[in-house]
Structure formats: structure tokens, C-alpha cells
Amino acid sequence: LSSDLLAQNQPYNYQLEIPLTQLKFDAKYLIGSGEYGNVFKGTLEKSDEPIPVAIKTTKSNSNTQYLRALLKEVKVMMYVGHHSKIVALIGCSTVNLRRYERELFIVLEYCEKGSLENFLKANRSHFVNFVQRGQLQVQQGDPDSDYNLQSQPSNLSYVQVLPILDSLTQRKCSTMPAFDIRQLVTWTIEIADGMEYLAMKKVIHGDLSARNILLTSDLTAKVSDFGLSRKIYCYSQYTRNGEEPLPWRWLALESLKNLEFSTASDVWSFGILLWEIFTLGEQPYPGVSSLTNNFILNLEQGLRPVLPSFATCDIYNIMSCCWHENPSQRPTFTRLNLCLQEVQDLCE
Ligand code: ACK
């Protein structure tokens, strides 16, 4: 955890401290809720022009260990700094930390379109599929463009799933015009970009999945919720009392067996994230309902997610490389980025 240590040895950056009076939000704008905290949409009123922000708070019953882990995460975010494919830390409010309430407010860049997971599920009916059995089918007879988004190609399967209304986030389902494999590939490259930067900074994400990718108003994908300290805390709680949600469907074999995390285990999770993208948000290993020793044994014996309906064989090969049993044999994010750009060239 070298970068974690590096980040933690830096003093808390008080330039990022935001007075609570500058933060406006209320319960009406709750956009997410978890075991330890809530996420609100709010505004930062520092200048004449209020800035929309996402505010992550802790729940008042959070224990000290958890708060410590969360503060470490904030320091990791401060250490990571700015990158266009990473959700930006705008600031933090720590004034209530030492009070009775022991609250911490983390102020993040607001990503209007929410999580990639919810977006994919909500917009399935707008997806135009050009892939059949792993092959890209190019429409014939259109001299101007290989793809014609206005009309549905009659010989190809078209996903028609009704949009899901997201009751939890209370956010109106984002809708968009038709989109296709090119948008999916663009997202994978943006995420690989963000992850390449994190890996360069030697920061391990520890929970890379479509729920932790956020989309801006122009649909740029950004990596969020990184910093391993808090997750290691949650994961160790899980192994102790079985209550914490361990994201086992995304975890590499060595993480499941020994809670070993590295950039290479992030690469495994990136492969699962690709699988989510090219199934439009299906749950990985749909036939498996819970984590068992048998599941781990099956992974050891070579069980892997199957070819997603909307992925070409090239894309499936890329994700399969991420699931190499030996972490050192998995590609780097730099390599993945290059391979995905080649796929993008084929799709244009
Ligand atoms: O799809 P969503 O509305 O987008 O549901 C999740 C929820 O909070 C729990 O994580 C939303 N969320 C989290 N961080 C942000 C952010 N920085 N900007 C916008 N929405 C966010 C996410």
C-alpha cells in the first residue's frame, strides 16, 4: 500500500476545507444511501455562481475506525489530484468531526447522469445492436455511413427492454437518443484512461465496477469511489461478521482467497466492468446467488463470464485477458487502453 502510506503521511490540506455554511443541501435531494453514509445533490455557494456538487456524508452512528478509514480515503483523493477521467474532489468539511455528531462531508464534482450501471439499465431500449455472435454486422447499402441510427437494421437483433425507473436515487431516468457499440467502446477507453492515471499514481481502486463509474452531462465516464483503505476496512468486517457487502462478483481470485489487492486485481475488476458494459448492465455470474467456496473453486478451475450479447470476439478477448489466474500475466491499463483504441478504430 505504498501510495496509501504516501498519501496518509501528507498533512490534511486545509485549503480544501469548505465551511459548512457554503454547502446547501437537504433530504429531498438524497441521491444515494449506503450502510455508512448518504449522497446528496447540493450546491457550493462560494461565489455568485453556485456550483452543483455531490455531498457524501457519514451517518451519525459511524464508528471511529470507519471515520478514520474515510479520512484516509480523502487524503488519497487529495494525493491523486486532478484528472479528466476521475471524479474530482472539490473539498471537505471536517468541522463536525470532533463534535458530538462526528460528521464528515466530502464534496465531489457532480456527475449529472449518475452511475454507469443505472444509466445502462435505464437506457437499454435506446441501444442499437450491431453485433451478432461476436461479429460486428455492418449494414449494407448505405454509402454515407456504416451505421444508420435512424432505422433499425431488420436482420439484427434489437434490444427492447423497457426503461427502469430508479426509485432509489429518485433521479428521473436519464434518457438519450439511440446509442450503439461506439458509445460503449468510448466509455471503456475513458475508464481505462482514468485507471491508467490511478495506476501511475500507484493508487489501487479496490472496487472498480459500473456502479462506481459516473457520467457527466456530456456522458463522459469518470472513475469514482477509489482509495482502498475504507474498502479494506469494510471487506475485513465482511469476513468477520458476514454483514458487509463484499463485491465478490468483481473481485480477482487472489482478492477472494487472501484479500490481496493490487493494480492487477483492479485489472480483473476492469474485465468484469467491460462485461457489465457489453451486457448493458447485467449482473456478472447471473446463475450464482452468493459467494461460496465452491464458486472460488470453480474460478480456480477456469470458470469465467461468458461472451456478452453486445461484445465482439475482439472485445471478449480483451476482457478474458484481464481474468488471467496469474496477476502478473494480466495486461496493464496502458496496454488495455491501446487495445481498446484499436477496437474503436474498427468500429468507426
Ligand atoms: O445512479 P446514481 O444516481 O448516481 O446512484 C448513485 C448514488 O449516488 C450512490 O452512489 C450517485 N452519485 C454518487 N456520487 C455522485 C456524484 N459525484 N455525482 C452525481 N451522482 C453521484 C450515483
Can you tell me about this structure?
The structure is a single chain. With about 350 residues, the chain is an alpha+beta fold. About 35% of the residues lie in helices and about 15% in strands. It has 10 helices and 11 strands. Strands 1, 2, 3, 4, 5 and 6 form a 6-stranded antiparallel β-sheet that branches. Strands 7-10-11 form a 3-stranded antiparallel β-sheet. Helix 1 (about 1-10) packs across helix 2 (about 65-80). Bound molecules: 2',3'- cyclic AMP.
Percentage beta strand: 5-15%
Q: Span from first to last CA?
A: 40 Å
Mass-distribution shape: globular
Residue-averaged pLDDT, rounded?
Answer: 85
Strand and helix map with partners:
Blueprint: H1 2-9, E1 23-24, E2 30-33, E3 37-44, E4 51-58, H2 64-80, E5 89-93, E6 105-109, E7 114-115, H3 116-122, E8 131-132, E9 135-136, H4 181-200, E10 213-215, E11 221-223, H5 228-241, H6 253-258, H7 263-277, H8 293-300, H9 313-322, H10 333-347
Antiparallel strand pairs: 1-3, 2-3, 3-4, 4-6, 5-6, 7-10, 8-9, 10-11
Helix pairs in contact: 1-2, 2-5, 4-7, 4-10, 7-9
